[in-house]
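Supplementary Text 2. Reproducibility record for the structural model of the 259-residue chain.

All settings were left at their defaults, and a single model was retained for analysis rather than an ensemble. We include the record here because the model underlies the residue-level annotations in Supplementary Table 4.
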Amino acid sequence: YSNIIKSNYKFKKAKASKTRIGNIVMFHTGRVGSTVLADLLFQHSDVQWDGEIFIKKEYYSDEFILNPLFFLNLRMYQKKIDFYGFEVTDRQIKNKINQSIDEFFESLENLDFKYFIHLKRKNYLKQYISVVRKRELKLCHIEDNSSISKTIYLNIKNDKFRNNTGNIIENFEKLDQYYDKLEKQILNKKSLFLTYEDDILPNPKIAYNKICDFLNIKNENPVVNLKRTNPFPLKDVIENYNEVESYLKGTKYEWMLYD
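Retained model, structure tokens:
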């Protein structure tokens, strides 16, 4: 199909297979429990879960780079299964698909996506810590009961968090703005709102069960294969905890220190 794409082919609204009930997209911002949830969805017999297809290196090709949405369209209809789903972050929408949020939702409508899941982590500070641990310790996920307890230093005044460089409060405010914009788009659609704290942290199957109810499919009791990478109190993890505490004191994000 490379010649089709190179000739500036524009896809039309995809024609669903005879067995297809619906297409699902899950929005998140990374380090929010999305991988463990995706693994549970991948185990379901009625769901073809494709994960974060826009960052999978095995998919990188001239065809993918020239038209990632056409590539998504092809992925959607390779299998005749009730539900197709994938997940995407705001950075991927901007950097891989090169669209605004509004443009991307229009593209999803053209591709016949009708089910929208929003997975959010309410505690941005813990999300930031997870980002730094991944960056410095090369620790994404673990599959056993071991954990790394090494402390990390948070550069709260000038650091890169989710591709935004600035102080910690500015970056948290940008996250607020993104969530506001996304939630306005999803609100009037078939949507399910999940949080890491309520639906993943206690047991990832809580989120899985809610998605099964949302899609009206059977709970197939999947196996939880991944464990938390940071089960430790913040004071034991953040090397410069007192500095971070002083910086967030009196802001609307102060509660994140003690949650």
